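Obj: model holo form, ligand = DQA.
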Amino acid sequence: MKILVINGPNLNMLGYREPEIYGGNTYKDLCKMIKKYAKERGISVSFFQSNCEGDLVTAIQKTYKKYDGIVINPGAYTHTSIALLDAVKAVSVPTVEVHISDVSSREDFRKLSYIRAACIGTISGKGFDGYNDAINLLISNRSDK
Ligand code: DQA
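Output (holo structure tokens):
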């Protein structure tokens, strides 16, 4: 099973940006943690991070017939991007939306997620562990079929 982990804008600043919300560990730490977990579960993972919406769309498009699942934290594009929603719909690759913070208990503008409509699940407010939970969701979704 091949999974692409996509992170959107400002997630490369993890460990430095608002540590009281996102914690003190870096993007590199995040990738290391996910890689270790995926290995334990016998899954192959790749990573992509960009601050640019179009590059994220292209990364999603490239999963078409190449990946079995996507884990995506679209950052602020969660709340604005119909393009990311359409990209996930276009490729039909099972996708899980992840947020490190609990977006439902923050500002109102964070409560809307466009991409959610195309995702098999959302994990929010579980810190970095949410990414591993997303991998589990993709695995169990696959074995249901
Ligand atoms: C985030 C929540 C978003 O509202 C925010 O814009 C982010 C990070 C999270 O992981 O909690 O950049 O997706």
